[in-house]
Design goal:
The complex is a heterodimer. Chain A is an alpha+beta fold. Chain A has three domains: 158 residues, Aldehyde Oxidoreductase, domain 4, CATH 3.30.365.10; 174 residues, Aldehyde oxidase/xanthine dehydrogenase, a/b hammerhead (Aldehyde Oxidoreductase, domain 3, Alpha-Beta Complex), CATH 3.90.1170; 321 residues, 2-Layer Sandwich (Aldehyde Oxidoreductase, domain 4). Helices cover 29% and strands 25% of the residues of chain A. A seven-stranded mixed β-sheet of chain A has the order 3-7-1-14-11-12-13, with helices on both faces. In chain A, strands 9-17-16-15-10 form a five-stranded mixed β-sheet. The longest helix of chain A is centred in the C-terminal third of the chain and has 32 residues. Chain A is globular and about 80 Å long. In chain B, 34% of the residues lie in helices and 22% in strands. Chain B has a five-stranded antiparallel β-sheet. A four-stranded antiparallel β-sheet of chain B has the order 11-12-13-14, with helices on both faces. In chain B, a hairpin with a 2-residue loop joins β8 and β9. The termini of chain B are far apart. In chain B, 46% of the residues are buried. The chains are: A alpha+beta, B alpha+beta. Chains A and B meet through β1, α3, α8, β28 and β29 of A and α14 of B.
């Protein structure tokens, strides 16, 4: 199959405006009469609010409004379970809870007003450990709920007892992971503009999921969806992070805007962002695995507990993805998995790139290496003996028969590119000096898109102007991942035009239908199909029009037309590729307009059916999967505990790379994020307080920490994806921590079962950090 | 000294309050007094007049971070940037004098520093990021007096002295007496650090530098070690200084190392014993950059490594 626009590393269509500074981000926007909004946050993670006195704050010069929970029509919102407070009314549940909001003419006045709000708290004991929250006699974080459990997902396959009875070797291990901050470059921004163009309120800002924000604001204000319009701005990174926190901010800004009848802008500082925004879930995971002496897996039992923090947020779905992926891409006949989420008074947790997979992959891929050691096997061979192939049955009972299961190919390509076998043998020999090297791997399968979480459909609009230029709208949003370029490539491929004729519009909820959230690495797959659908509809209209105009004269049918190089051709003569131009795309557009032909179309794509039984964890949870393998090579200073990641090889089957350069970009970024997760990132909490609320204390990797990264793109076109394309965003991040931990084990003989592998853990085997996480 | 979020609470951060739409440093300070005198004499007079109310500004990489979003709390600024001579590195027969406004980048690039004080040179190269090294100064690093200040252990290992001036004259203080606690020194509110004076090391002086941090750049040290050893012609150790940062309230020299090693040849030393000695004599704390237990373990290891490195260099 040959392509003209897709499967090519074209330049990002939004690159120029971003590198020149022309691109406007939320914080750049200004409106006439605009006020500045600020949030007063609680002093204690868990407290009763006895009294709030806003009188002095209201009197401060320049202050236009001070609002508390009393002013919120509907104070609870949430995508899955509605229990997140817009503003804390009677009780605060975590350290980031807002207590009051202020709008003032200057930021300074808003700041001063916050200091003048008098709040009387009664500090309450809190629960800061999910293990505590699980206990029967534990206090309840939310009094109106029967207990602290957010969710429990069971999965049962085969007979676990019979499975272990057949095992020659049984290993039991416990693994833990930490709170992680998204660390997007741009902190959260929202501007709410009242009564703009007949909307009740228009929201601009760094919005990851415009529809989720629209839904939350409408629900909080108790108005119809069409009254709330959300327009996305350029986004300085999100990684799953600008969802509920933005919904909350947008609702607060909207309340202030409607109260004052003026636009209200709210911008978080980095401290505010880290203090308030949700994090990646910490997990505590107990794994028990049984295998035969020959290394065949026979049984796996897993109990995983996620800290949901103060609110449910995305916990039910995050833990659900963990269930599906918890056993890894291995054939295991007998499986018992229980995955839980519990409320605590810690900072709440939600979506972050990976979404429940990085935690279980760290555990299960570390476990595979531990098992290999126990069996005296090479970890690669142990994996190859057990991996999924076509027609394998997953832990949830799904037969993998509708796409190419390319795990073996992916692994072998990574092994080859990293020279794994030779290095593994070399590093197994004794090494002199303090600096020891090791190499380790991790593999995964990952369900594409939402799966059984929610409705999985998306929209696109293609609108051709009478000069042949084109506006493209999508219901999914550019989050920095390159969606605009990918979608423009797909439209250009179908219509045979150049990318520079396509103007990609920002998401506007009043124009384009609700397409769900831009999450789950679903954009190329679901949104790409929607764009393709729109383009094909317009193309059919054009072809029909051309046939009417020229068909008789030149003797062709609509179906014979070829759209290419900004022109429309028909095949002529016997040789393939012998074509004759009928009309240019531009000229066609003018003629069609004059003939009264509609050159616009809505595209829509709904994902194939899936199924899930919540009682047994059985079904077909995703309609297709991607496969990945990452191999880490490290050097550990056994004197200081410093880890240098020398090289990461990342092989990923993406179905089809619509834009190979962009795929590589995703791999480089994801690998670095995985590296940070593995060796340094940790939000340290202490009784609900956060110790590191800025980047001096919360460490993310710098360019000097970046290893050589070898991306290996594997292409096995999927029958469902546009041109066969599937996913790449999240798979890149979920593998690094286990691969690095396995490499560190080979280098040092020290098995570290808690993330991150910081200096202490590597050197002395445990962290004495007073962070309180463990 | 344990950093406790619970005790201090989580500060309500703000955003953009200090910066508005202007980008000239002078403009940030309009609310407070701002002086940029053109001589040291004038500078100390202004300082004398305002007592402790003025913040003395060199590169600003510590001060502007410390007062981020709270610049209005600073009553006035004394910016040293226009005073001639403070940015120079001067070589004399027996010493080098470094002006307090010499930046980390300049220390990193200077041929003289590279030749005479390689440990200081390498420590400067390990500070923060290129931006911080371009702005941040040796004087600022000394006056901030962070226990983790990267230049401090090297200055101690090279036996530096600091010249302090005020309207009442000047005094010279050895580095060993200058630091009194975390972010505390003996400098008075009416004094300015005007020179860093380091004796020229003789021939056969070797040094080793080690910085351990949680990542490779832009990181406050978990522990640093500057080891400088002087040998005589007979390859006997004349002097040895093992100085560490981030392991005590101030940068420290482990003087017992000198007692044990002086007068011996390096190959006759028991490196493990000296490593153990260093680990015992430091007084580290638990903080976000490392635990006491970790720091003791590492102090021992890096001391042994440093001795090995010097033994190797001295043998060449």
């Amino acid at each position: 199959m040959s392509f003209n626009k897709v499967n090519k590393s074209v330049k990002r269509i939004d690159a120029y405006e971003k590198v020149t500074g022309r691109a406007k981000y939320g914080a750049d926007l200004k409106f006439a009469g605009m006020l500045y909004g600020k949030v007063l946050r609680t002093k204690y993670p868990h407290a009763r609010i006895l009294k709030i006195d806003i009188k002095k704050a209201l009197e401060y010069p320049g202050v236009e409004a001070v609002l508390t929970a009393r002013d919120v029509p509907n104070n609870q919102f949430g995508v899955i379970i509605r229990n997140q407070q817009v503003l804390a009314g009677k009780e605060t549940f975590y350290i980031g809870d807002g207590v009051a909001v202020v709008a003032a003419r200057t930021e300074e006045a808003a700041e001063r007003a916050l200091e003048l709000i008098e709040v009387k708290y009664q500090e309450l004991p809190g629960i800061y450990d999910p293990e505590e929250a699980m206990k029967e006699d534990a206090d309840r974080v939310h009094k109106e709920l029967p207990g602290n459990q957010v969710i429990h997902h069971p999965l049962r396959k085969g007979d676990i007892e019979e499975g272990f009875a057949r095992a020659d070797v049984i290993l039991e291990r416990e693994y833990t992971t930490q709170f992680v901050e998204h660390s997007y470059l741009e902190p959260e921004v929202v501007i709410a503009v009242p009564h703009e163009q007949n909307s009740l309120v228009t929201i601009y800002g760094s919005v990851q999921n415009p529809y989720a924000t629209q839904n939350a604001v409408a629900s909080v204000l108790q108005v119809e969806l069409s009254r709330v319009r959300v327009i996305q701005n350029h986004l300085g990174g999100s990684f799953g992070g600008k969802d509920e926190v933005i919904s909350s901010m947008a609702a607060r800004a909207a309340l202030l805007a409607l109260k004052t009848n003026r636009p209200v802008k709210m911008v978080n500082s980095r401290d505010e962002s880290i203090l308030e925004s949700y994090k990646r879930h910490p997990y505590r995971m107990k794994y028990k695995v049984g295998a035969t002496r020959e290394g065949k897996l026979v049984a796996m039992e897993i109990k995983a507990v996620a800290d949901s923090g103060a609110y449910a947020c995305q916990t039910p779905f995050v833990t659900w993805r963990s269930v599906v992926q918890a056993t890894g891409p291995y054939e295991v006949p007998h499986v018992k998995t229980d995955t839980y989420g519990y409320y605590t008074n810690n900072i709440y947790t939600g979506a972050m790139r990976g979404y429940g997979s990085p935690q279980v992959i760290f555990a299960q891929e570390s476990l595979m290496d531990e098992l290999a050691t126990e069996l005296g096997m090479d970890p690669l061979e142990l994996r190859l003996q057990n991996i999924y192939h076509n027609n394998s049955i997953t832990a949830s009972g799904q037969r993998l028969d509708n796409h190419k299961v390319s795990l073996k190919e992916v692994i072998l390509k990574a092994v080859e590119a990293s020279n794994y076998r030779e290095k593994y043998a070399e590093y197994n020999k004794s090494q002199s000096g303090d600096k020891k090297r090791g190499i380790g791997m991790a593999i995964s399968f990952r369900g594409c898109s939402l799966g059984a979480e929610a409705v999985d459909a998306a929209a696109a609009i293609i609108h051709i102007q009478k000069d042949g230029s084109l506006d493209l709208y999508s219901g999914l949003a550019e989050n920095g991942q390159g969606l605009k370029t990918i979608f423009a490539q797909i439209a250009a491929e179908e219509l045979g035009i150049d990318l520079d004729r396509i103007n990609f519009m920002e998401v506007d909820t009043s124009i384009i239908p609700d397409s769900g959230s831009t999450v789950a690495s679903r954009s190329t797959l679901i949104g790409g199909n929607a764009v393709r659908n729109a383009a094909r509809k317009v193309k059919a209209i054009i072809a029909e029009f051309i046939e009417e105009e020229y068909g008789d004269e030149f003797g062709f049918k609509a179906k014979d037309l070829i759209f290419k190089d900004n022109r429309i051709y028909v095949a002529e003569g016997k040789d393939v590729g012998d074509i004759k131009e009928i009309i240019s795309f531009k000229e066609m557009a003018g003629k069609a307009y004059n003939a009264g032909v509609l050159l616009s179309a809505y595209g829509w794509y709904k994902a194939p059916e899936i199924s899930w039984d919540e009682e047994t964890g059985q079904g077909n949870p995703y309609f297709t999967y991607v496969y990945g393998c990452q191999i880490a090579e490290v050097e550990v200073d056994t004197g200081t505990g410093e880890i240098e990641v020398l090289k990461m090889t990342a092989a990923h089957d993406v179905g089809r790379a619509i834009n190979p350069a962009n795929v590589k970009g995703q791999i480089y970024g994801g690998v670095m994020m995985g590296l940070g997760y593995a060796i340094m990132e940790e939000l340290e909490t202490e009784e609900g307080y956060i110790r590191n609320t800025n980047f001096d204390g919360y460490l993310i990797p710098t360019v000097r920490d970046m290893p050589e990264i070898i991306p290996v793109i594997v292409e096995n076109p999927d029958p469902v994806g546009p041109y066969g394309a599937k996913s790449i965003g999240e798979p890149t991040l979920e593998l690094g921590s286990a691969a690095i931990a396995n490499a560190v084990f080979q280098a040092t003989g020290r098995r570290i079962r808690s993330l991150p592998l910081n200096l202490e853990r590597v050197l002395i085997g445990h962290s004495l950090s007073k962070g309180g996480n463990r | 000294m344990k950093e406790s979020a619970a005790r201090s609470g989580n500060r309500q951060g703000t955003s953009g309050g200090d910066f508005k739409d202007c980008f000239r440093p002078e403009d940030y300070f309009t609310a407070s007094k701002y002086f940029a005198p053109e001589s040291l004499k004038e500078a100390v007079e202004i300082l004398e007049g305002y007592g402790g109310d003025l913040k003395v500004l060199a590169g600003g990489t510590d001060l502007l971070v410390e007062y981020y979003e709270r610049l209005y709390e600073v009553k006035g600024w004394l910016d040293l940037k226009n005073i001639p001579g403070l940015k120079e590195i001067k070589v004399f027969e027996d010493r080098i004098e470094i002006g307090p406004l010499v930046t980390h980048t300049e220390l990193e690039k200077s041929e003289n520093i590279k030749e005479y004080y390689p440990v200081l040179n390498r420590a400067a190269a390990d500070v923060g990021s290129p931006q911080i090294r371009n702005r941040g100064t040796i004087g600022g690093n000394i006056i901030t007096a962070s226990p983790a200040g990267d230049l401090l252990a090297p200055l101690m290992a090279y036996d530096a002295e600091f010249k302090l001036v005020s309207t009442r004259g000047e005094r010279i203080v050895p580095v060993g007496q200058f630091f009194t606690g975390p972010k505390r020194t003996i400098i008075s509110s009416n004094e300015i650090l005007s020179r860093i004076i380091i004796p020229l090391p003789g021939e056969r002086t070797y040094g080793s530098w080690c910085k351990v941090g949680k990542r490779k750049a832009l990181i406050i040290s978990s522990i640093t070690l500057a080891l400088v050893v002087k040998f005589n012609k007979e390859r006997v150790i004349k002097d040895i200084r093992a100085c560490l940062g981030a392991v005590a309230p101030t940068p420290v020299e482990i003087k017992e190392v000198r007692k044990r090693a002086r007068g011996k040849r390096i190959e006759d030393l028991n490196f493990s014993e000296l490593g153990e000695l260093v680990a015992e004599r430091i007084s580290p704390i638990d903080d976000i950059r490392g635990t006491a237990e970790y720091r003791r373990d590492v102090a021992r290891e890096i001391m042994i490594n440093a001795l090995e490195e010097i033994a190797e260099k001295a043998a060449e």
